Amino acid sequence: MGKLVECVPNFSEGRRPEVIAAIAGEVEKVEGVTLLNVNSDASHNRTVVTFVGEPQAAKLAALNACAKAAELINMEQHHGEHPRIGATDVIPFIPVSEITMEECVQLANELGQEIAGKLNIPVYMYEAAAKTPARVKLPDVRKGEYEGLKTAIAAPERHPDYGPAKMHPTAGATVVGARQFLIAYNINLSTSDVNIAKKIASTIREAKGGFKYCRAMGVMIEDRNMAQVTINMVDYTGTPLHRVFETVKSEAARYGVNVIGSEIVGMVPLQALIDTADFYLRFEGFDRKQVLEENI
Amino acid sequence: MGKLVECVPNFSEGRRPEVIAAIAGEVEKVEGVTLLNVNSDASHNRTVVTFVGEPQAAKLAALNACAKAAELINMEQHHGEHPRIGATDVIPFIPVSEITMEECVQLANELGQEIAGKLNIPVYMYEAAAKTPARVKLPDVRKGEYEGLKTAIAAPERHPDYGPAKMHPTAGATVVGARQFLIAYNINLSTSDVNIAKKIASTIREAKGGFKYCRAMGVMIEDRNMAQVTINMVDYTGTPLHRVFETVKSEAARYGVNVIGSEIVGMVPLQALIDTADFYLRFEGFDRKQVLEENI
Q1: Which has the closest alpha carbon to B270: B250, B255, B291?
Q2: Which of A91, A121, B29, B232 could form an S-S bond across to B215 if both were Cys, CB 3.0 to 4.6 Å?
Q3: Band of residue B294 on the pLDDT scale cut at 50, 70, 90
Q4: At CB < 8 A and 24+ separation, what contacts does B62-65 make?
């Protein structure tokens, strides 16, 4: 299917339907791009748009949506629960198929320069596209939010990576970057003891010495009277699904508990399922092009 | 991606490139169809064309290719090692996505009627589209080949399902039907004793009390000094990959032998890999639409 990138821009508007429709419309009308989802939250006053497309088409869609947001959103009047620094708050690119993270970083840099050059909005690069370790994490880049950054941006250590060291008068600033696809993954246990789920979660999460690309919590699913390990797989190429599944299965056995099932919440890239089949069936030299549908 | 069917017509010409190109060209020029492969064998004097497409487009491509073969191939002058009864020898439809076997049977019947009505070629329906048990297997339908069928066709039990009970003077007769996708699958063993592979193969194949949709043999891979179970999975929806893999692993262990790997030879439908991940990760309620690429 050729090079394909996902883009998930977040906009600081979750209440005015006509503004949301105008921004999403900019994405939809670019050829070579498929709009997958528009998710608006009124209390956050924020909209998350998900689309996929050929890299240059995706970049154009992101730029046009960002320009529309700058035109229709005034950060001086924006209030909401979610942290933000601009009308277009953050734009991550995510590799989907036949594209490397390095290419997504390059694409993010091109977009950052265009947003700065054409729209006069200061741009910070984050995650895989960060220029310094201090800008890898989004909360660090967003420190002080829109209101605080208006003065903080003048300090050399807060200067943007592209564009003026001065907030856009209505659109603020924007964060652009590249990251891996996030898979929301739950593993269900044959116990109603949430403490077992919590203990297992602590063994697999990075913060406690577990897998580098794994965030995990133990929770109780009340309506099934069942404990669950709920997981964010933040880089399935580094920490694959099967490794987390097998580790949870093994840790659960230590308590005499079985894994009764697992759930993918939302989307999963095809490659993560191919990697799973590859591991369990011990494939030798399997090529993604052998998937019939990949040739269409 | 919508309803998708694969079609793998076999033509009785494997030597004249211009004839092969003309037949494949008829497929290629139909909108909504993707030509995947053209495989010609000179000693068989036969060409296998593989394409996928939307059902009605695939049917049109098959009809046009069949008409072109009837125009350019004269069975009176055809010689080759492979059994055959007509210029277009056999046309199977194979469900790929969002289409049932019943719909493929219906499509095959429509094509059979069109070939009979428009080209005046007698048509036999086989496999899932067979009208009687005696016509399920291709060798049974092809009995006597082109030369023998010229007289045999007059007997009521050999009358075609559609069209005249008389061979087309140059194009002969054609077999049309529907079957499942065939996955060629090898499982490699940590032994150089081919007898172990042969014993394992006999436990999984239908003929010896094994899996209904499994053909298997034990062979020696000389250049790796390794025994292999080589398998044709003739219906992965009835006998899935994981079940065959796990059974071979378990039977091999009985001889102190391990499975060191497995290979998919050629194409595999995406669904077979999803089914594999679903089994091993014990998915609850996974929907194919959750595969990101399926939404594009």
Answers
A1: B291
A2: B232
A3: confident
A4: B62/B7, B62/B9, B62/B27, B62/B91, B62/B111, B63/B111, B63/B114, B63/B115, B63/B118, B64/B26, B64/B27, B64/B30, B65/B9, B65/B11, B65/B23, B65/B24, B65/B26, B65/B27
What stretch of H or E contains A91?
A: strand A88-97
CB contact under 8 A, A262 and B245: no
Inter-residue contact B258 to B189 (CB < 8 Å)? yes
C-beta separation of B1 from B97 below 8 A: yes
Contact B99, B109 (CB under 8 A): no
pLDDT at A1: 65
CB contacts < 8 Å between A and B, how many?
124
Please state, in angstroms and rounded to a whole number, the distance separating the CA atoms of residues B112 and B173.
11
DSSP label at residue B158: G
pLDDT tens profile A124-141: 999 999 999 999 999 999
CB of A4 within 8 Å of a chain B CB? The answer is yes
ipTM greater than cut 0.95: no
From chain A residues 252-281, the ones with a CB under 8 A of any chain B CB are 259-264, 266-270, 273-274, 276-277, 280-281
| CA nearest neighbour of A107 among A156, A54, A150 | A54
Spell out the domains of chain A, with CATH numbers in brackets.
4-178 (3.30.990.10), 183-290 (3.30.70.670)
Could you tell me the pLDDT band of residue B82, with boundaries at 50, 70 and 90?
confident
- In the predicted model, is pLDDT for residue B296 greater than 90? no
Active-site option among A44, A78, A79, A82: A82
- Name the residue among A52, A260, A282 with its Cβ closest to that of B259: A282
With CA atoms as reference, the chain B residue closest to A285 would be: B263
Average pLDDT over residues A182-206: 96
Q: Is B138 on the interface with A (CB under 8 A)?
A: no
Rounded (10°) CA dihedral A96, A102, A103, A104: 60
Average pLDDT over chain B, rounded to an integer: 95
Question: What is the mean pLDDT of the segment spanning A54-64?
Answer: 98
Q: Is A82 assigned a catalytic role?
A: yes
Tokens matching residue A246: 């097998």
Which phi and psi (to 5°) does residue A49 adopt?
-105, 130
CB contact under 8 A, B293 and A1: yes
* Helices and strands counted in chain B (H then E): 8, 11
Q: Which of B6, B263, B290 sits opposite A268 (nearest CB)?
A: B290
Q: What is the pLDDT of residues B221-278, one digit of tens each?
A: 999 999 999 999 999 999 999 999 999 999 999 999 999 999 998 899 999 999 999 9
Q: What three-state secondary structure class fits B226?
A: strand
B258 → chain A, closest CA residue: A282
Catalytic residue among B82, B159, B168, B242: B82
Measured between CA atoms, how close is B251 to chain A, in angstroms? Answer: 15
Per-residue confidence (pLDDT) for residue A7, from 0 to 100: 97
| Distance between CA atoms of residues B289 and B285, nearest Å | 11
Residue A98 touches chain B, beta carbons under 8 Å: no
Contact of A190 with A258, CB cutoff 8 Å: yes
